[in-house]
Amino acid sequence: MTGKSESMKRLEERIIKCRKCPLGELRTNAVPGSGSYESKVMFVGEGPGYWEDQEGLPFVGRAGKVLDELLESIGLTRDKVYITNIVKCRPPNNRDPTEEEVKACSPYLDMQIDLIRPKIIVPLGRHSMAYILRKFGFDPEPISKIHGKTFEARTLFGKIVIMPVYHPAVALYRPQLKEELQQDFKKLKDFYRN
Q: pLDDT tens-digit profile of 27-58?
């Protein structure tokens, strides 16, 4: 096991034991994240849903099937990317995470970014987009205006490209946006290949 793998495993154990906010008491499973610790691409959702809470893995419900299709459409699989969320425990009734929950949990995401050192971060949906853009010094706009656009951030470990996209669930409840999501993933493929 590499030093990065050991550090990530220790971080995942901390997440699994975490009780920093009330979500830790309500969950079935914490959902640290999954995929390759060596990935150049990191996908960040907002929080686990029902199925994720049951299985302890991100994006395993209906939106996860859409994400799998989108990944497949650009020649990627889950084991080649890293997928996580801002909050690691399911908010009740799949409500949006509160500011307090994000504040308690986001240091884990920050550590995941520091350990994995992705070249591309893809926020999935408006909540993760707002968090990631602010983290790297950008002012978020509505996701409908900036999905598929890229932002370049400088970090201690080099340049990161941030490309916000709609949350995969949008394809389920607003099918007319699925094509836009597919187009954004095609742009992602071009960045990934370069």
A: 999 999 999 999 999 999 999 999 999 999 99
Domain count, the chain: 1
Q: Residue 112 is which amino acid?
A: Q
The two tokens of residue 114 are 């520091």
What's the helix, strand, coil split of the chain in %, to 5?
50, 15, 35
CB 148 within 8 A of CB 165: yes
Task: Select from 172, 149, 145 the least CA-distant residue to 161.
Answer: 149
pLDDT value of position 192:
82
pLDDT digits (tens, 9 = 90+) for 141-184: 999 999 999 999 998 888 999 999 999 999 999 988 999 999 99
The model's pTM = 0.96
pLDDT at 175: 86
Domain that holds residue 124: 3-193
Half-sphere exposure of 4 (CA within 13 A, CB side): 11
Q: Give the domain CATH number at 58.
A: 3.40.470.10
What is the rounded CA–CA span in Å between residue 103 and residue 84? 16
Cβ neighbourhood burial of 67 (10 Å; 0-12, 13-18, 19+):
buried
Strand 41-45 and strand 82-85: pairing? parallel
